[in-house]
Amino acid sequence: MKLVKYVMIASLSLVLVGCSFADEYTANFFQDAEEVLEDMHEADEGEYASEIDPKVHTDNSIGEEEQADKERQEPVAEEGFCLGEMGTCEEVGNRYLEELGLYASSILEGPVSDGLTKRQFYEPIVSYLVDGEQIVDPIPETDDTAYDTFIENTAEHERIWEQINAVIPKDKRDMLEVLIFYTDGKMNELASVEPTEYDPTKWMLNIDIKDVDDPYIFINTIVHEYGHLVTLNDSQIDTIEDTYLATNNPDQYEALQSSCPTYFTDFGCARQGSYLHDFYEQFWQGEIEDEWLTLDPFNEWEVYDFFERYYDEFLHDYAATSIYEDITESWTFFVFSEKLYYPTEVWEEKVNFFYQYPELVQLRAEILKNVAELLST
């Protein structure tokens, strides 16, 4: 199963879509960003509210293995410092967010669908193995000669990878093993992640070469897709090793599903105390899940009607397509905005949800620092 992101019309003023870049990606990639920065210094950026405690959801009791996983995730930092800087990780993250200024708003914004139905296909072009900070062993994935120029343009591949490498902390993406450049035409599926067939604990990141022209949407895309990896990696999910188990042995698959004491995902049973299980218990269990299960999640009219009935529950209609997109869109908003003080709607509580995990607050600070450095170059 792929976790994808499409261009959709959002029902909030911020249209949160992800995943793009373009064929004409050049060394002037961040020229627009520099112009925004110049305008930013002249703009009134407003005042930031004072910090209050977020609404915290209490963890369930967890076993020794899960407890060890959570302990390994805890940030190791000198008290009163984060990333070697004075202050809590929330404060350090907020300083980088303030440094980004209008950049952050541009990242959270995205294109609005033109409402036209486009031909959908999936054409893999070239794949790479991810080896630490490098991509290696390129393999052409198509015989279509129309893509020969792109396949041969390895410098282009490196430039795109460099942006991904710059945004996501290098020591926190061990689950990412394959990078695939593909296309399905312009402005359809913007990007996706999916487990590899040979090892479902390792993941592939797919980037559409037709949609890589906007630096802000690209950064939004990478952080959004990374959110899937953060919430669905094998430290969070008891991953099913057989990718085709549901097809090859449906009885065994159903038995696993029935025996799952938490939330059963498409990739396996969520571990006790995992981000997705906690999110499920707090925001999806009960009425929301029961009604969502009656929908066709690929029918945009059904999803939009569901979203309108629970308007205060979701950031926008795309977040209502599944729990996976809901938690990941909330994650992206969490990264690129300050804590939502005095939340009055459920979608605001979803954004604040991540503040109960110190390791995620630190990860937010790292990403914001990386993005600020990237856009300043």
Detailed description of the structure:
The structure is a single chain. The chain is of the alpha+beta class and 377 residues long. Helix content is 41%, strand content 14%. It is built from 15 helices and 11 strands. It has helices at 31-40, 64-73, 89-100, 102-108, 148-152, 154-167, 215-232, 245-248, 250-259, 275-284, 287-292, 300-309, 323-335, 346-352, 358-375, and strands at 3-6, 81-82, 85-86, 123-131, 134-140, 176-183, 189-195, 203-208, 237-239, 264-265, 268-270. Strands 1-7-8-6-4-5 form a 6-stranded mixed β-sheet, with helices on one face. A 3-stranded antiparallel β-sheet has the order 9-11-10, with no helix packed on it. A hairpin with a 2-residue loop joins β2 and β3. α13 (323-335) crosses α14.
Percentage of residues in helical conformation: 40-55%
Q: What ranges have pLDDT less than 50 throughout 5 or more consecutive residues?
A: 7-62, 64-76, 112-117
Q: Can you count the helices?
A: 15
Question: Which of globular, elongated, flat, extended, rod-shaped describes the shape?
Answer: globular
Rg to the nearest angstrom? 20 Å
Largest sheet: 6 strands, mixed
Span from first to last CA?
Answer: 37 Å
The proportion of strand residues reads: 5-15%
Mean pLDDT: 83
